[in-house]
Fold these 3 entries.
Entry 1:
Amino acid sequence: MITFAKWKLAIFGIYLVIGAVFAVVFLAIGIARVDPAAKGSPIGFRLLIFPGVVALWPYLLSRWIGGEHAPRTERNSHRDGSGGADQ
Amino acid sequence: MNEYKPDEFYIGYLPHTPSGVGRRLRMIVTGLLVLTVLTAVVLVLGQQRLRTGIFEFGDVRTFEGLMLARPIPVLLVARPGITGKLPVHSRYFIVAPGKHGADDLVGVFHYRQVKLKGTLVYRDGITMIEVVPDSIEAMPSNETRAQLPSIVARERRLHGEQVLTGEIVDSKCYLGVMSPGEAKPHRDCAVRCISGGVPPMFVVRHQNGERTLLWLMDRDGASVGNAVLDLVAEPVEITGEVRQEGDELFLRSDPKTYRRAPQISQHKER
Amino acid sequence: MSLTYGAIGWNRQKKIYDLVLACGIVLYLSLFIGLGAWLNPGATVETLLIRGFGTCALLLLHIVLIIGPLCRIDARFLPLLYNRRHLGVTTFIMGLAHAGLAIFQFHALGDLNPFVSLLVSNTRFFSLPDFPFQQLGFGALVILFLMASTSHDFWLANLSAPVWKRLHMSVYAAYALLIAHVTLGVLQAETNPLLAAALGAGLASVISLHLVSGSREVRADSHSSLSSFDGAGEFVDVCSVDEIAEKRARIVTLAGERVAVFKYDGKISVLSNVCQHQNGPLGEGRIVDGCVTCPWHGFQYLPDSGASPPPFIERVPTFRVKVDGGRVLVNPRPLPPGTRVEPARIDANASG
């Protein structure tokens, strides 16, 4: 029981450590590549989203590696029905 | 939306709120603040009044007496003057800081006169010392040690086999380090403390509101320690032999025979 | 909304909101702790703080949860919605203070790592009265953390509004976990019916307000849902011009989603009802300075093109519209977001 709990916590801890390391790099370089609106944004903004980057790093990493250069636009039946593309 | 002028429209980033919206908003906020006050008052009034155990946090005193490291670490301090019907010694149970028992700290001083520093914890006539580690020093022996076996034998009372229902707590928190130091919310802490060597105690609640506290021992007179972890903070029924030494009660029973009780029934008589 | 992100976009209204929030929290905590210490001198400071922060977080969560349905029922509550994020983040901070103190108090300074202790100290998962309630609270805190840490508009844009909203809908899971945390935790020891009644009242108000606002939505949608097509072409008769107030809209369901039919300056324009920011209901907004303005956070769109005025970049789909004999006819095929559509003129078509 205790060993199992220690394993769970260790995995959780490793996830967060990777997230923290990733967050530092992402907030310094990556963020402007996945969202142009973040280009030149103040340090306060970057600190504010730091915890979220630590928690959701796999998603942002996939966006960064996948070369998506802007946030995805949302989908709903009107946007899909219109062909989806922005004018 | 009937009382709300149709042309009024709240936009958060504009500096001023339309007057009608603003008036309504002030009423809503006042309502929420009243709700806040009411909630605080109701929740405070609804809570049980807590019994007062005392932990003299920050007040370190020096004690001298005969150390008995087993089965439960206790310091026997001779009462001054003629004690009459009172036991010859005051008993100060010894625990370590944090959620730890003092067995490791006092083991080498078993049956020796010592001086130590610590902080008092007391409730319902039971007193405990949270000892400052490394403050224990051996002192020259005095006559207490020689007289002890006869004193203990004289002060021992046997109350026979009894069936008691109550709650297992960790003695340190229950006696005053935490308030409340019992029941469900405190369960994990009690588990941690007992697991760390703090001696477990059995609290029997009586109908008249009084409580009896018994130290839990196995049939051989050793502390039950970790064997009770799974039953902490739940209604438990224990059948065992109750014996008294000085002012203290001990309940001797095999921990394997402890049973979960449907609920904590209150004992009519002590 | 803007072209670059800032840290916290405080404005006058948000400052007032946060000030009132801070005063409310100080009021609650000082009353709870002050009155508690006075009536209950046996309680330790740690106990008062743990209980104070925990109950404060739960009270705030109730307010967070009822703002949504209250705004659906009565638009006068909308100013509470405007800065609800700060309320949510504050709820998380109160919960974190509660959890941090409780983990220290009950699990630290022992023979195990406090977090391991949290997981293993109580394993009575199959007993209701003895259930390890602390793990339920921890689960709720993790959800509140995910919501608080993704509350910035950066996340709204990068996760996209529907994903972000789905993530933030997990607040209901957190709420359920917390109700169980309290019921299986402190209420097992504190048996005064007053406390159970207070929790019950909170739960009842959250559930009933959601049921009322939900049933209203369903009724409104079933009234406005259009299935009959105009026989002459692909245009659908959605309503009469007179049913729409000036500078306001009527909401009807078309092509699987709601559309907002706006009337302004003798013209009619039709937009998708879903604001690109947080999916607020544009049709419940109004035309301000020539722009359709969302009632939730004031995001604006030009009525003829569905595009935010520069420098903003949000766009919503638009619909072709005409007015015939005082009836508004809409083509149900959505046009790509930001497509300009000539507004239908009311006077030109009034006669024929």
Note: The longest strand of chain B covers residues 54-68.
Entry 2:
Amino acid sequence: MRIRLSILGASLCLFAGISSEAQGPGRGNTAQKWPPVRRDTTPGFVIREPLVIQRCGECHKPDSAGRMERLSYLRKSPEGWEISIRRMAALVGVGLQPSDARTIAKYLSNEQGLAPEEARPARFDAERRQLDYRYTADARTEGTCRACHSMGRVISQRRTRDEWELLVATHRAYYPDVDRQTFRRNGFGTDTGANAQHPMDIAIAHLARAFPLRTNEWATWSATMRAPRVDGTWLLSGTEPGHGAFTGRLTITKSATADDEFTTHATYRYVDDGKTVTRDGKSVVYTGFQWRGRSNEVGMHADSAWREVMFIEPGWQSISGRWFKGGYDEFGMDVSLTRLSTGVPVVAAVTPRSLRAGSANQMLTIIGANLPAGLAANAIDFGPGVHVDRVVHSGGDSISVLVRVDSGATNGARDLFVAGASLRSASVVYDKVHRIRVTPQAGLARVGGVNFPKQFEQFEATAFNNGPDGKPETADDIEIGPVKAAWNLEEYSATFDDDDVKFVGAIDQNGKFTPNIDGPNTKRSGNRNNIGDVWAVATYQGMKARALLLVTVPLYLRWEPWKGAP
Amino acid sequence: MRHLKAVNEKAHRIEATQNDVVALQGGGSPLQPTGPHIPLGCTFVFAPGWETDSTGGTAGLCQPVERDLFDCHITCFWPAHVPDLYNYAPDWTGKCAAAQSDWRKIDLIFP
């Protein structure tokens, strides 16, 4: 995949052309000189890692203080640095051993990374969450950047103003069409206003202001940052769409060779079907809090590998994130870890979570750790209107109780208090299911299976009570929890004689949509692909809800660094 | 439609359509999402977009997508979605004389 000289030459010519052209109205940047004259005088970071200096320094020349061109003026997430290193290998021809690349990525991620407060808004990107993220701080910048890629790529970086300008210049050099597509007003060559700003100039100004190189957050965090002391046993809990809640243990063991590298052993059990899973894994923690791991299900084949992206909260008492797999990282589970200390009770979950008003003899299981034996019924407090009639079992990891709910109990979530431990919104009381809702409301799948991976979509149906105002879809609605619905697909009529539902794929009774194969379909008019728009419809106790599902084309280019070769 | 009488084949098809297509496209149902889906914060502002058309659906996409691959590749129009000629994959379609029949020969590219 190394670039040919002719192509590199073409790119450099384009770069030169753009640089001179960029001096026109609205650009405000000077022609590129080397080394560039820095107008933003924010001091860069001194780079001390010999491998970075040796392998990167030929092009990124260090100054007398040890600040390297470009490198010293950036901060990024681990994924951001990894993508940069891969680009250097693919386009500039830098030959790096994988072990050297890992050392360089770790050093730069640690020394020029993000503080927890800075990384938190961009978590969705590293955790590969398919949410409808909107960047609201500047709509024009959002429009310019996300035309091609996620804003997660942008908000997980910090740069000097000169570096934001160089980033834009690099985009224009590599992808000259961006001028016409989004970077320049009215498209390439048609801008005539002397003072009008181009979208890229607006974006540079905003990004330089919103995401500068030096911040108080980074100064504060880098002063206290160290390898986290997370070895030990943790209470593992979470939910997996389509499979429900699970709880268990995660044991973290520090590696013998590095304080920020760990091995893991997880055992957890799904509440609904009782399936028990054991996983062994390895992880690296970047910047003192960014957990990046991989684990395999014990006894299963290699494709059981899940990637683990988690956020270690400062204080090292809780960790949360997402473990995922799939051709497009679409299968995943939300994971929470709570540190366990000997003898200290912890509550992770209550199952079933929903309690119908007026019910009696309802068996509930409280799942946690270090829970005391021989608890009396009045020691377990589920809140107003919920009474524990009998404790069936208590001790160790669980407490089983029979509860009674007053017929007039107020609808709403209840916090649980037991043996000095508590859990917010542990259960929810409701008198009636008023409606169900399908999530995600806008699903996305991609055809595949022949030449490219399929992207599946997992839907869930959740029951709601309309809350005190009695109106659906308002802020006081009470989420009762997931329900076992019946699933089918219906046509979303976007054209006359729309027949997408016959071709796009199928949904099973667990809400999982499997798309059809990629490639032209000779049985469709115009040899169209098996793509289309359909409704995913859930039916539960006579109630129906639906979500729009787009079944669309594959991606032919994958930027996620963990997807390619090591 | 009450005052119009179908006189040709297409009009008969419209009459036979059970759904009011125009109303559906106008967002008649409160459950119908408004605007395009933005997975991972990325959207599709071009017309058509890669994953969706400008209305947020797939009906307006170039179809089949294989017919359009050479143009996407050569013009570098979809830098985040399709390997581009300039940078990462100059030979991407080298084994693919006619994309619509040879599309199985093209590779997934990891830049």
Note: Chain A is about 20% helix and 35% strand.
Entry 3:
Amino acid sequence: MGVVADTWSWLTTGENWSGTGGVWDRLGEHLFLTLVCMVIACAVALPIALWLGHIGRGGALAINISNVGRAVPTLAVLVLLTISPLGRSELWPTVIALVLFAIPPLLTNAYVGMREADRDVVEAARGMGMSGGQLLARVELPLAYPLIMTGVRTATVQVVATATLAAIAGGGGLGRIITEGFNTYRTPQVVAGAVLVAVLALLVEGALVLLSRWLDPMRRRTAGGPASGAADADAAAGRGVPVSATS
Amino acid sequence: MSKGCLAANEWICGEYVRSRQEELTDATLQHIGITVASVGIGLLIALPLAFLARRYRVAASPLLALTTILYTVPSLAMLALLVPMLGISVSVVVTALVLYSLTILLRNILAGLESVPEEVRESARGMGYGPLRMLLTVELPLSLPALMAGVRIATVSTVAMTTVGGIIDFGGLGNLLFSGLDSVFKAQVLTASVICVVLAIVADLLLLGLQWLLTPWARSRSRKPVRARADDAPSDSAEAEAPAGATPLAGKAV
């Protein structure tokens, strides 16, 4: 129980929160890194995934990139980049690693979402004379939206976690509190850092769940209708559940 | 050329692999041991949990919520939280990895059990199968592809995540990554990274082979649709294949 009390006193000590290297400083770095890398990763991955999904090609690439991303240890990439010439700057190894590991979930989920957009609906829209662009924007995108957002959520949580690891290789962020604690054998600081990181990851996950519900293009259309419940249940039972939800 | 590559700190160095063979073997064996223990224990816990969640539906969603929360905790934080509880030992790493693999396995086993067609269950019941016999001889075999997909995902991500254990010196090849980072030892970092990826691929292929051995009916069925497909829905076979490979999951952030 001593650890809990010591951790609590670490967390309630004002000096630990303020100044350079304080919690607020590290949290700022962490959020900034996460945001920048997610913007870059989305800008790279989503157009490719939507285009591939729209034309229906490159499925093997879109699926396999996730398997590759899973097999390559994030830590190894971070360490490799840090001791490579790129490692002379503190920022680049972290940014590159974060973007690299955010792309697979974005790409795979968005692609699968596009391909799983109900073919009958897509055909019907085509029959109504919609052009490729209209089809993409008004039919496929709204239908693929849940999985696209799953990808965004998964990738963001991944980036938050990877940004923590970046501290091992000399990057900034909240992970630094943990690694500094490890190096100086200060267990309360290690635990306090871990609690902060865990809370941040859970908050980010929760916030994105709420955000994706709020932004859902189908929200108003199906609100209250019995169809929405049925469609949700269908989607949940039918496909990516074992996987898409394990962010 | 090969004589000076250690002194020159080159990325690719045969001399390194030769002279540190023992160190590399030990690290690889520790890596494999941690991975096998983690996924094995994870499976031993996930199976009964999945059966319970299936039998008592109320337990399912809190259980899934809890494992999802555990899964969201970044690995470095998880290790840091477990160290005060378990001390600096290999059990810290194994416990963290068990918790992560548990989530993947539980979801996949549940999805597999859900996917057993109700008609199959009905006919088994009609033939006088009790719940346990039905579970062991009907539901479990039919959900094996989903289960094995889970085991493969869990294993591959566990191989990658074990490296983080290097922070407390129980990370298999991760130990070499940490010491290589401190001493800027390029050959060591690259060699350890490559072995890690190779381990993940080999483990995945071995599990794929195991699945092939365990599901003889799927082998003959995979040939059948070619005949049946002519008038039947052609999309059917494609969809049946999807769950194993087309898992739109990101894997655990390390």
Note: Chain A has one domain: 2-220.
